[in-house]
UniProtKB/TrEMBL annotation:
SUPFAM superfamilies, sorted: MCP/YpsA-like (SSF102405)
Domain Smf/DprA SLOG intervals: 82-291
Membership in a protein family: Belongs to the DprA/Smf family.
Name of the featured protein: DNA processing protein
Length: 364
């Protein structure tokens, strides 16, 4: 794409008041953006109204700086790409959406966007230890069969899903709500570098765009759109993950949900999805079978616990429990109980929840 073409696309994107809906009408009427900006005021008004027509005739003040920043970013390496609606590399699934982005910025392997098997894994930013483990283990098992995991790089379930996908060896795609010259959250900087090396990071937002709250629900439609199905690991009733699931269902994609404890707020969103028709899943093979993909051998369990630890794990059950309740169940003194719980926690069998609660962590 020439500098003039890139400038025209960027100008269309930056023009105030011209959203994706108006932009698509203009593209349908006049062709590529360069042709749009060659039209008369009356021709533009006939398509998009007088206010937007006047805005289109005025070059945005920030365009020169934004264009230079984008060209510098693209020149920094062969793993940087800008895909427009007219680019044959633009994902076909996104073109089917009601509001596809005008431009996609991609850091990494652009071919990951065309991987034949893609599944979104989304969920709470504050998952339980079990939810964190489920996200990583499901992603690992699915990635080992060749599935590309799509998620949002957020804390919690998203990060665990990307980690499992990287460990499994298949590409993973992170769809973010900032410009690609920023990483949010900052603690995922190293993770973002590894994703770009083994897959791709994708954004519809221009370079320099900060992490604005309104952008994250918006980017969820791309997570759903890029995937053949969406797995919700844990989600509260008001979670943004339910937005992703709803968008996936509206686009005719499969929705999967992992059930959890009836006492955990993070499970209530998944239970609501299951009541609405989402498929209840207990293993990665449930998803693979539904999508008609080759199934995977079950992941190995950790080294078995000792007999004493087995007894303590049985007392824990699978619902959150307080230390006092666990002590009443086992009859152990506080010091002994705390020591054994610490050993189980270090081995990954037990996790701690807010409010001093404990939870047994099973293996998916």
């Amino acid at each position: 794409m020439s500098g003039e073409e890139l400038a025209a696309w960027l100008r269309l994107l930056l023009t105030p008041g011209v959203g994706t809906d108006s932009a698509r009408k203009l593209l349908a009427a006049f062709g590529l953006p360069e042709a749009i900006f060659g039209q008369t005021s009356s021709a533009l008004e006939a398509v998009t109204g007088s206010q937007r027509a006047q805005a289109l005739l005025t070059e945005p003040e920030e365009l020169p700086a934004a264009l230079q920043r984008l060209q510098d970013w693209l020149a920094a390496g062969p793993d940087r790409h800008v895909l427009t609606l007219a680019d044959k590399r633009f994902p076909a699934e996104l073109l089917e959406m009601a509001d596809p982005p005008l431009m996609l910025y991609v850091l990494g392997d652009v071919n990951a966007l065309h991987h034949p098997q893609r599944l979104a894994i989304v969920g709470s930013r504050n998952p339980t230890p079990q939810g964190q483990a489920n996200a990583r283990q499901f992603a690992l098992a699915l990635s080992q069969t060749g599935v590309c995991i799509v998620s949002g790089l957020a804390l919690g379930v998203d990060g665990a899903a990307h980690e499992g996908a990287l460990e499994g060896g298949s590409p993973t795609i992170a769809v973010v709500g900032t410009g690609l010259d920023r990483v949010y959250p900052k603690r995922h900087l190293n993770l973002a570098h590894r994703i770009a090396a083994q897959g791709a990071i994708v954004s519809e937002y221009p370079l320099g765009t900060p992490p604005l709250a309104a952008h994250f629900p918006q980017r969820n439609r791309l997570i759903a759109g890029l995937s053949q199905g969406t797995l919700v690991v844990e989600a509260a009733v008001q979670s943004g993950s339910l937005i992703t699931a709803r968008l996936a269902a509206e686009q005719g994609r499969e929705v999967f949900a992992i059930p959890g404890s009836i006492h955990a707020p993070q499970s209530k969103g998944c239970h609501a999805l299951i009541r609405q028709g989402a498929k209840l899943v207990e293993s990665a093979n449930d998803i693979l079978e539904d999508l008609r993909l080759p199934t995977s051998p079950p992941l190995p369990f950790d080294t078995p616990a000792s007999a004493q630890e087995d007894t303590l794990l049985e007392a824990l059950g699978h619902d959150p429990v307080s230390l006092d309740a666990l002590q009443a169940r086992t009859g152990l003194d506080t010091a002994t109980l705390q020591a054994r719980l610490l050993e189980l926690e270090l081995e990954g069998h037990v996790g701690r929840l807010p409010g001093g609660l404990l939870q047994r962590i099973g293996r998916s």
